[in-house]
Amino acid sequence: MTHLAQNAAGPGALDILLWVILPYVALVMFVGGHVWRYRYDKFGWTTRSSQLYESRLLRIGSPLFHFGILVVLIGHVVGLVIPNSWTEAAGVSEHTYHVSAVVMGTIAGVSTLGGIAILIYRRRTVGPVFSATTRNDKLMYLMLTAALVLGLAATVAANIVDDGYDYRTTISPWFRSIFYFQPDPALMVGVPLLFQLHALSALALFAVWPFTRLVHMLTAPLGYLTRPYIVYRSRDTQLGSRATRRGWERVR
Question: Are the C-beta atoms of 94 and 86 separated by less than 8 Å?
Answer without folding.
Answer: no
